[in-house]
């Protein structure tokens, strides 16, 4: 094929031939490069790849949660206020009325003293009274009355109850600090004839023993009337129980 015929070929054929020649030259150059520098092609490829490397976009970091707003504090309930001071109480002035004094009407005394049973009344056995009765119309002491008049009372002259052995030990704590009062009937001979409890203690057994011992041990000078004659009378006796010092 002549040169003239090549130049007369159509442009499309000429372009294909040129591309073929260029490809052959590229292959020859690539073969030489691989023969003398086998890693050059890899570096070139890596350079081209790194040149066109595209970094993937990072996902945005999550934003920290916004702090929740503090709860709205409710307005404090207003404290109750003290009530206004009350009116001062002023006591009403009072006046104590003067005490009313009622005078009892005077009792007119009779011109003559009356007679009756007053001369024989009192704490005595049945018999002559202890009053100062008399005969006549005067108010003074008579001379022929049946009462004791200016006589004397009975007096104990002998006998004592002062030993703890006279009473039972079992009831000692019951009667200690207590007392009994008895009434003793004294005859005209000065001997007691009867005894009764007037004011009992907590120990009834001790009360009975007191009466029994009084009848057995006591002796009296009998009571007398205004004329000095012995009469029957009642004598009161109080018995107390207590611890002696040192017991």
Automatic annotation (TrEMBL):
Region (Disordered): 55-152
Domain TonB C-terminal: 165-231
Stretches with biased composition (Gly residues): 128-152
Subcellular location field: Membrane
Pfam families referenced in this protein's UniProt entry, alphabetically: TonB_C
Coiled coil: none
Signal peptide bounds: none
Keywords, sorted A to Z: Membrane, Transmembrane, Transmembrane helix
Record-annotated membrane-spanning stretches: 15-33
Bilayer topology term: Single-pass membrane protein
Bias (Low complexity): 74-95, 104-114
GO cellular component terms, A-Z: membrane
Keyword Cell wall biogenesis/degradation: no
Keyword Signal recorded: no
GO biological process: transmembrane transport
NCBIfam families assigned: tonB_Cterm
The protein's name in its UniProt record: TonB family protein
Organism, scientific name: Novosphingobium aerophilum
């Amino acid at each position: 094929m002549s040169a003239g015929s090549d130049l007369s070929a159509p442009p499309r054929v000429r372009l294909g031939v040129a591309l073929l020649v260029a490809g052959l030259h590229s292959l020859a150059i690539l073969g030489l490069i691989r023969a003398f520098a086998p890693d050059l092609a890899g570096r070139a490829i890596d350079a081209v790849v790194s040149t066109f490397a595209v970094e993937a976009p990072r996902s945005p970091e999550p934003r920290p949660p916004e702090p929740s707003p503090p709860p709205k504090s409710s307005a404090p309930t207003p404290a109750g206020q003290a009530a206004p001071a009350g009116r001062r109480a002023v006591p009403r002035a009072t006046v104590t009325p003067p005490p009313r004094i009622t005078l009892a009407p005077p009792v007119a005394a009779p011109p003559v003293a009356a007679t009756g049973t007053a001369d024989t009344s009192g704490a005595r056995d049945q018999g002559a009274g202890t009053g100062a009765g008399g005969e006549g119309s005067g108010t003074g002491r008579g001379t022929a009355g049946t009462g004791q008049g200016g006589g004397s009372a009975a007096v104990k002259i002998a006998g004592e109850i002062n030993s703890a052995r006279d009473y039972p030990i079992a009831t000692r704590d019951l009667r200690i600090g207590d007392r009994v009062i008895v009434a003793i009937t004294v005859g005209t001979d000065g001997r007691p004839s009867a005894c009764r409890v007037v004011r009992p203690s907590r120990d009834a057994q001790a009360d009975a023993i007191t009466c029994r011992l009084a009848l057995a041990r006591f002796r009296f000078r009998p009571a007398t009337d205004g004329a000095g004659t012995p009469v029957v009378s009642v004598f009161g006796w109080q018995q107390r129980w207590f611890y002696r010092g040192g017991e």
